[in-house]
Write a structure and sequence with these properties.
Blueprint (H helix, E strand, L loop, with lengths): L1 H34 L1 E7 L2 E2 L3 E4 L2 E3 L1 H13 L1 E7 L5 H6 L5 E2 L7 H4 L2 E3 L4 E10 L15 E5 L3 H6 L6 E5 L2 H9 L5 E5 H10 L3 E3 L5 E5 L2 E3 L4 H14 L2 H9 L3
Parallel strand pairs: 1-5, 1-6, 9-10, 9-11
Antiparallel strand pairs: 2-3, 3-4, 6-14, 7-14, 8-11, 8-12, 8-13
Helix pairs in contact: 2-8, 2-9
This protein binds glutamine.
Glutamine (GLN) binds next to loops.
Length: 253
């Protein structure tokens, strides 16, 4: 009987300690999140120099501009990494507060989300093997096998080519890998990530002829009150040279 009583007492003691610890920890967390509200940014962090992993941290032009906007507006930035073609759904469903991923403004996307003013211009380019390339200009793409990243503007443009064979990958890096393994004849992707891929892989090059010019912007849920605030912050960050400084840091021409 004594044994049972002491066991019960020990159990009660352990439980109350556990309760105290959780309660104390919980309230500290609540306090900090009550002080600084978080904003979740949806991105695909395999798009150097705009967003990519440096160790465990996501860095890059978009990550730093987003950080500067959140600092200005008094939010704590949280970056959520996902497939590129999940970003708009994350934003429309409210899972993320905004999407920033070297994302091109298109009329079709505008039907589901609002875009801020553009913060960068970009170009789609064609990557091919350095030697014996079957594709030497955009016309050659019409009958080629082409690797693209699923749901990107590169994907959208080449999907119009009826005789081309399109291979869609979740990451641009996988499309480039397929190119280095001669599984596709060319890859269509944004210029700056293309430059990073060419640097990281031997035997491939970017064709001089650009494929399409585009504008990057941040997407938010339709009617979001944040869009105007983001535009004001972007305007200030452009005017005070912050955006140029961030771009120069990552794209040292
Ligand atoms: N700019 C392209 C697009 O918006 C690709 C973006 C990306 O792959 N992160 O579709």
């Amino acid at each position: 009987m004594k044994k049972i009583i002491s066991l019960v007492l020990v159990a009660v003691f352990v439980c109350s300690c556990a309760f105290c610890l959780t309660a104390c920890g919980g309230s500290a967390d609540n306090n900090s999140s009550a002080e600084v509200k978080e904003l979740h940014m949806a991105t695909n962090a395999f798009f150097e120099p705009y967003e990519y992993y440096k160790g465990k941290k996501i860095v890059g032009i978009d990550a730093e501009i987003a950080e500067a906007i959140c600092d200005k507006l008094g939010y704590k930035l949280v970056i959520d990494d996902m497939d590129f073609d999940s970003i708009i759904t994350a934003v429309t469903s409210g899972k993320a507060d905004f999407g920033m991923a070297g994302m091109t403004v298109t009329d079709e996307r505008k039907e589901s989300v609002d875009f801020t003013n553009s913060y960068a211009t970009a170009t789609q380019v064609i990557i091919v093997p350095e030697k014996d390339s079957k594709v030497n200009n955009s016309k050659d793409l019409e009958k080629a096998s082409i690797g693209v990243q699923l749901g990107t503007t590169g994907d959208i443009y080449v999907s119009d080519l009826k005789d081309a064979k399109i291979e869609r990958f979740n990451k641009g890096a996988d499309a480039v890998l397929a190119l280095t393994q001669k599984k596709v004849d060319a890859v269509v992707i944004d210029r700056e990530p293309a430059k990073a891929f060419v640097k990281q892989n031997e035997g491939i090059k970017i064709l001089d002829e650009p494929f399409a010019d585009e504008d990057y912007a941040i997407c938010l849920a339709k009617g979001s009150e944040l869009t105007e605030k983001f535009n004001d912050a972007l305007k200030e960050l452009k005017a005070d040279g912050t955006i140029d400084k961030i771009v120069d840091k990552y794209i040292g021409e």
